[in-house]
Amino acid sequence: MLVLALGLLSEAAKIGTSSIKPLKINLSERIPHMLDLVQRTHLPAAELPAAKDSYNTSLSSGMPLSTLQSLQKEWIASFSWEKEQESINRYHHFTVEIEGQDVHFIRELSQDPKAIPIILLHGWPGSFLEMLPLIDLLTLNEPAATGSERTSFNVVVPSLPGFGLSSPAPDNWTIPDTARIFNTLMTEVLGYQTYAVHGTDWGCAVAYGLYGQFNTTVQAAHLNFLPFFPLNSEQLAALNITLSVEEEDDEQRFLDWQGAGFGYFIEQATKPNTIGLALYDNPMGQLAWIAEKFILWSDPRRGTGPSVLTDNEILRHVSLYYLTQSLVSSVYMYAQNLDGFATEYTKAKTNAPLLYSSFKYNVGFWPKTLVEEVGNLVYYKFHEFGGHFPALDNPPALADDIRMIGKYWHN
Ligand SMILES: *[C@@H]1O[C@H](CO)[C@@H](O)[C@H](O)[C@H]1NC(C)=O
Ligand SMILES: *[C@@H]1O[C@H](CO)[C@@H](O)[C@H](O)[C@H]1NC(C)=O
Ligand SMILES: *[C@@H]1O[C@H](CO)[C@@H](O)[C@H](O)[C@H]1NC(C)=O
Ligand SMILES: *[C@@H]1O[C@H](CO)[C@@H](O)[C@H](O)[C@H]1NC(C)=O
Questions:
Q1: Architecture of domain 2-44+55-408
Q2: Which of 66, 348, 358, 368 could join 212 via S-S bond, C-beta 3.0 to 4.6 A?
Q3: What is the mean pLDDT of the chain?
């Protein structure tokens, strides 16, 4: 314990430029107003007869009423932001100003002097909270399984611009801009000459941007989503890519999402202000809009087995969005990055290894041959358990795959 504390102190001194400020998260002030609104929100007594509850697929009519009712009850009766805040503050939070933007990040250090620096990048409707289950697994500061793969990491988890406690993105701000300030965070602010990246959803677009744009500092990337639009069956056939029976299933899940699960994307890309302001002071509205994604895009076994994506986890995510007033600023990412998911596949200009994990219930599917098109793919693994939020859906499997970076790390 003493050794750990001293290690943290000396590391804190190392990053001690005047602009880095330690932060304790305290969003308690707006809690009574939020809970008051939750309590006073009336929901219909019964589902409409037309509502299709193909639970856990993109083919449903959306958020099931019964689920929304039970989440509302839980939010009022047993959810405690104070308690969540305490556990969130167990990690070391900082803010730093980069190019005029306040950037919030967590940094947790491994005790291993050879630990690899890594930045973990969340997406929408995620937040830095999404990455918390990986921190202890990757720093190996919890008793770890013995074995040959003992690679550990110094972990940095920022909030993307417009999310959580980072400032809203300025006008005309795009993914490459976010990649640039995060490279500054890792190199100039935190002093790492080289580092690894991991990203999911929009975070994968930032991670992939870092991988290609900063090919001297980014020495490895791990992704579980790609910033390239998945291909449909005809496009795959045109490339002579044939799928296994299981892969056909994954492909169908993508096609269902593209056909019936994509409305939020168009809305957020074209009228971010309308949805953002409609839900601004409406926690139950934010719950319906956000929880639908957590539920439909994750493994149907959500909250069981390795999955920590419980109802409480959903409520603390939505509470964070509400309490930091970041729903409106977060959805602007779609409008500001209309070409964020490219339709033409290109290879990043780097020799750095790319590792990829495919989780069965994800909404996008890229077979190995396709991932090979975009980078120096050295590792591709399919997982039966997990979906679009693998850091919550199946944190041990994701951490094991990220840890494989150690095998290819040369610095
Ligand atoms: C959080 O801030 C409120 C004021 O908004 C204050 O009353 C409370 O003591 C603070 N909580 C902590 C844990 O610092
Ligand atoms: C954003 O881009 C538009 C179109 O190029 C330009 O007119 C505007 O001045 C830019 N805004 C800022 C703040 O740079
Ligand atoms: C696909 O296979 C066919 C038949 O073998 C071949 O003619 C065609 O060039 C291939 N297309 C690509 C994109 O490799
Ligand atoms: C790294 O990026 C630079 C600038 O885009 C490029 O000239 C160089 O070829 C890249 N390195 C590799 C190994 O692709």
A1: 3-Layer(aba) Sandwich (3.40)
A2: 348
A3: 93
What's the CA-to-centroid distance between 193 and ligand 4, angstroms? 17
Residue 242 Cα to ligand 3 middle (Å): 12
Amino acid at site 346? T
Does the reported pTM lie above 0.85? yes
End-to-end, the C-alpha distance of the chain in Å comes to 28
Please state the domain extents for the chain: 2-44+55-408
pLDDT in tens, 198-210: 999 999 999 999 9
Using H for helix, E for strand and C for coil, what is the string for 137-164?
Answer: HHHCCCCCCCCCCCCCEEEEEECCCCCC
Phi, psi of 355, deg, nearest 5: -115, 145
Condensed to tens digits (0 to 9), the pLDDT of residues 301-353 reads: 999 999 999 999 999 999 999 999 999 999 999 999 999 999 999 999 999 99
By three-state DSSP, how is residue 307 classified?
coil
**Candidate list 177, 192, 388, 393, residue with the active-site label:** 388
Cα–Cα distance between 188 and 71 in angstroms, integer? 43
Q: Is 201 known to be catalytic? A: yes
> Is 379 an active-site residue?
no
pLDDT of 247-278, one tens digit each?
A: 999 999 999 999 999 999 999 999 999 999 99
- State which ligand 3 atom lies nearest to the alpha carbon of 240: 1
> Do the bridges between strand 218-223 and strand 353-361 make them parallel or antiparallel, or are there none, so unpaired?
parallel
Estimate to the nearest angstrom the gap between the alpha carbon of 269 and the chain centroid. Answer: 19
Tally Cβ neighbours within 10 Å of residue 176. 14
CA distances from 52 to 45, 59, 290 (A): 17, 8, 18
